[in-house]
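Fold sample X.
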Amino acid sequence: MKNVYRTILNAIDTKEIDSEEDIFVVKRRYFTVSYDKAIEEFANTWFVDAGELHSSAIQYVIGAEPIPNIGGIQNSKQFDKFKAKHPNAKPFKYGPEMKRQWRKTLDEVIVPLSDELR
């Protein structure tokens, strides 16, 4: 979150953001971009559908078990594309590791960004 605020401040300093613009609108825009970018990066890294991740993220609260929409995410995975990028990947390790990394991303990135958007 510090990075997002730093980016906002830098944009103000460099006049990318109009000093007259409502700060709440600016904050929402920057945090929404960061939120969407985190989901898109995860989708591109693990070759799963970003829409399924968004659905999961909207419903998620820290500690939720199971992770909301984890079935949809797992059904959207494209292991063949992941394997092409990571030749040593094993199909029986891919699913559980992707799930662990999604929970970590939710807890450490998505939820804090979402909390700032409220």
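Fold sample Y, listed below.
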Amino acid sequence: MINLDLSGKKAVVTGASLGIGEATVKMLAEHGADVFFCARTEESVQKLASLEVNNGSIKGFVADMGNKESTQAFIDGTLSEGSVDILVNNVGASPSRNFLYMTDEDWQELHELNLLSAVRCTRAFLPAMRENKWGRVVMISSSAGKYPNAALIDYGATKAAMISISKSLAKKYGSDGVLINSVLPGLIHTAMWERAATEIAEATGGNMEDVIKANGTSVPVGRYGTSEEVASLVTFLCSEAASYISGTSIEVDGGQAGHI
């Protein structure tokens, strides 16, 4: 029997107001975990934290993970209620911009949000995982971290770094019972991709739904994925069912990746 029960485990998910983060919070809680998450606005926090789940619990914090002090406040808030067993580094942004017009500040701000937030949270929660001889860290990277995109240069760089860090930490702390992996979503129907499709539609005179449907034909399974399909993999990796999986980077892309 596959054991996906997370009862008694405390999980942290960063950037969970929408999409993959929100779906991951719900699914971890439904499998028994007590989940702590953050989002930038009080409205987003209240919306998700008010959901009723059958098994675990959900608690939210307002935090800007692109800000060092705000990130530390979120970390302190979660640690004040006990050690963390599961960390899902999900928060991130993916601006599309031209390399020649990007400033140092653009690079620094995205690295603060996408990469350093993951570094700070992992560094904070890892010691207790090692002490308890059990832990799970999942980096929500991206297919752009493995297959660079000219329009997402800084985004891809941060996501590639997350994959590299997860593999390094997996080698270092696997013997302590801490398993660390990366998940690489491809075309997932989230607000981010809806914004991108809207921009294309406005430029071409079409509509967002038709753009998403057309883009989906480039995927072997013929459609965009869902946030829940990504969350399912994350939940599996956080469970005892994945007790011999560490240092991997797993694509959730409907078969788009063409490598061996």
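Sample Y note: The two ends are 30 Å apart (CA to CA).
Also: The CA atoms of residues 198 and 208 lie 5 Å apart.
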